[in-house]
Amino acid sequence: MKKIINNPENVVNEMLEGIVKAHPQYVKRLEGLNVLVRANSPVKGKVALVSGGGSGHEPSHGGFVGEGMLDGAVAGEVFTSPTPDQIFEAIKAVDGGEGVLLVIKNYTGDVMNFQMAGELAEAEGIKVADVIINDDVAVENSTYTTGRRGIAGTVLVHKIAGAAAEKGMDLEEVKRIAEKVIANVRTMGMSLTPCTVPAVGKPGFQLGEDEMEVGLGIHGEPGTHREKVKTAAEITKDLLDKIFEDIELVEKDEVAVLVNGLGGTPLMELYIANNEVDKILKEKGIKTYKTIVGNYMTSLEMAGFSVSILKLDEELKELLDYKADTPAFKQL
Amino acid sequence: MITRDLLVEILKNVADTIKENKELLTDLDAAIGDADHGINMNKGFKTVSEKLDTVKDKDCGTILKTVAMTLISTVGGASGPLYGTAFLKASMAVNGKMELDNEDIIKMFDEAIKGIVMRGKAQRGEKTMLDALIPAYEALKGSLEKGDDLSEAFIEAADAAKEGVEYTKTIKATKGRASYLGDRSIGHQDPGATSSYLILRTVANTLNQQED
Questions:
Q1: Peptide bond into A219 cis (omega under 30)
Q2: How many CB pairs under 8 A join A and B?
Q3: What's the rounded Cα separation, in Å, for the pair B19 and B38?
């Protein structure tokens, strides 16, 4: 294992310290906790958004704490859900009296820990609601399993629901907006290399020099299949085809595109992939309203990317355009 | 009847049992999960054992609530919220009581199971701790209703939980991380059901030692 760390046990703590030192105008850390909140928390008179999950997905989620997006982000150990007491403290610290929306990615541990924290907060008189993101089309949806995973589409939920809260919508409305995004966003990813959790010290899986894993989760969970590496055009088409199977898009529909790097892929390759996404959408007559390219929901040093497609309506477009000012995402 | 002091003794013994079985639970989890059940449970119950000294002169509800909050903040993963919820619901059922009669114990157990069902959105037959706990609850209730004393009833409960653990070997996981394995989870016993069984066996053993 070759990493710029001091001690595998301290990576989350030291990272959070580094984030606060880089962005003191945006975030502060709750003392003794792995929680980042807006520097001016609690913001009175608006619904607050709290998200979080295991670490290793930076800039998710702490990088999205700021105006127009999140109010608080709770960091667990690498790829491990944070505990309810930490989430509970985050909720208390950001509640400005209008209630708190918990934005949760669909993993058993995350859902249980966040909902439990929500119940603890409700017991103290704080209004809490939650939404669960499950945008990964690689995993089949079924009532008999844990269901689809939440991946990069989460960033679009942060952006749009965050705007709804900033505009002064009430908790019920912000939740409705978040659920609308979830209902209309789909993501499919692939990877070229595995990643190594610092405390484990060795890669989570092995891939041959000429192999790629298609449809994997952001913790290196197995995907749909493994195959030989193909061209950017072919890979992008495969990912989008899987998305098109799952959400109906017709000519003149408008979408937002997120081409998300998993941490180890250069921007050059992400832009090449984005060029292919654009070609495919144009061929289908689908209008790209907004394109976002970069590393937003990463998987440590994994090489690879995902494409998220969000089908838009007028309401979502307006919120997508709304101002956001956070360390990792800015919308003027 | 379980007095407050006996309750504390039971909980301390549970912490010892979990420690002794840390490797077993982790190995079971390595086969179908993420290999941390023993480590996490031991971390949680070790802290519980330390915290118990600070609340041992409080009522049973407060003691159980302390156990719940400690597990919630230290265990992590899915086991933390599940066991935490179970103890939290149990504590709420016996708030303010200095000793627990049979009716209290049935109510606590029932509330704990309801809490796990609510938190995990699981049912019996999905290869989870419920496959040990629900049969154990039914055995305990049946035994007390036919007039057995509490120490006998907990032996029946622990035996039923043990059978439940054996049953988890035969079925496919449809909840939790093992569900990603589908049919490949068959043949392995569920780590959560195993830790639940170990807890019940410890309660039975502690109660029976009292009588000797």
A1: no
A2: 56
A3: 8
CATH number belonging to domain B2-211: 1.25.40.340
> What is the length of chain B?
212
Query: CB of A9 within 8 Å of any CB in chain B?
Result: no
Over residues B51-75, the pLDDT tens digits come to: 999 999 999 999 999 999 999 998 8
| Catalytic entry in A23, A57, A61, A158 | A57
Nearest CA in chain B to A204: B34
Give the CA count within 13 Å in the CB-facing half-sphere of A264.
16
Given the structure tokens 């702490």, which residue do they identify? A62
**Cα–Cα nearest to A86, from A134, A46, A133, A54:** A54
Give catalytic status of residue A57 as yes or no.
yes
d(CA A240, CA B24): 44
Kindly identify which residue of chain A lies nearest to residue B118, measuring between CA atoms: A112
Q: How far apart, in whole angstroms, are the C-alpha atoms of residue A140 and residue A117?
A: 28
Q: Which two structure tokens, joined as six digits, stand for B59?
A: 């009522």
Of residues A325, A215, A158, A193, the one with CA closest to residue A263: A193
Q: Which domains does chain A have, with CATH numbers?
A: 16-183 (3.40.50.10440), 185-320 (3.30.1180.20)
pLDDT means over runs of 10, chain A (332 residues): 94 98 98 97 97 96 98 93 94 98 93 93 94 90 68 98 98 98 97 90 87 85 85 98 96 97 98 98 98 97 97 98 98 92
Cβ–Cβ below 8 Å for B84 and A80: no
Instruction: Look up the pTM and report it.
Output: 0.85
Is the pLDDT score of B38 beyond 90? no
A158 is catalytic: no
Closest approach of A33 to chain B, Cα-based (Å):
12
User: CA–CA distance from B151 to each of A88, B1, B58, B69, B210 (Å)?
Assistant: 39, 10, 24, 28, 9
- Helix H or strand E segment including B208: helix B191-211
Do B84 and A116 count as a contact with CB atoms less than 8 A apart? yes
Which site among A85, A112, A143 would you substitute to test the B interface, given the most B Cβ atoms closer than 10 Å to its Cβ? A112
Query: Regarding predicted confidence, which is higher, A145 or B26?
Result: B26
Q: pLDDT digit string (tens) for B169-183?
A: 999 888 877 776 777
Tokens of A205: 């899986």
The whole-angstrom separation of Cα A265 and Cα A270 is: 7
User: DSSP string of A203-253?
Assistant: BSS---TTEEEES--TT----SEEEE---HHHHHHHHHHHHHHHS---TT-
Cis before A203? omega within 30: no
